[in-house]
Amino acid sequence: QVQLVESGPGLVKPSQTLSLTCTVSGDSITSNWFWAWIRQSSGKDLEFVGAIDETGRPFYRQSLKRRTSISRDTSKNQFTLQVFSTTEEDTAVYYCARLRTISYVTRAEGSWGQGTQVTVSS
Predict the structure, then answer these.
(1) Residue 63 has what DSSP assignment?
(2) Do residues 121 and 11 touch, judged by C-beta distance below 8 A?
(3) Which has the closest alpha carbon to 28: 51, 54, 9?
(4) Using CA of residue 2, residue 77, residue 8, residue 40, what is the dihedral sign?
(5) Structural element, H or E, at residue 71
(6) If pLDDT is split at 50, 70 and 90, which confidence band does 111 have?
(7) What is the pLDDT of residues 84-108, one digit of tens each?
C-alpha cells in the first residue's frame, strides 16, 4: 500500500521560499501516476498547486506557475515543492498525493499524505 509523507518547515517568512518534500513508500514515483501537491487554506476548497508525471514532467496551476517548481529525486523516491516569493496567502495545509488525474482534486480519490501546515508570517 502506497504511503506519502510530507516534510518541511511549518513557518516561512514572507518573500522567502516554501520548500516541502514528499517521501513515498510502497510505489515508485516513476510509475504511471500523477504525483501532486494540493493545498487548502482555512475555510477554502482544495487547490491544486502542481504535479509531476511518471517522466518527471511538471504541471502547474496557472496562477502559481511563475513562482512554483516541482522536482524529484528518484533515488530517494521523493518529490519536492518549492513556492517562491511567498505571501500570507500561501498559508495552508499542504498535501502530497498520488492521483490518476489532475483534472480535479478530491480527497475521495487517490492516495494522500496526512498534510502539513505551513504558515507564512513574519
Answers:
(1) G
(2) yes
(3) 54
(4) negative
(5) strand 68-73
(6) very high
(7) 999 999 999 999 999 999 999 999 9
CA–CA separation, 99 and 78 (whole Å): 15
Asked if residue 80 lies in contact with residue 74, where contact means CB atoms within 8 angstroms, the answer is no
The three grid cell numbers given for residue 58, joined into one nine-digit string: 511538471
Q: Residues 84, 100, 1, 74: what is their CA dihedral angle, to the nearest 10 degrees?
A: -50
Q: What share of the chain is helix, strand, coil (3-state, %, to 5)?
A: 5, 50, 45
Instruction: Fill in the amino acid letter for 107.
Output: R
What are 96's three cell numbers?
502530497
Place of cell 528518484: 74
Closest C-alpha to 34, from 22, 44, 45, 46: 22
pLDDT of residue 27: 97
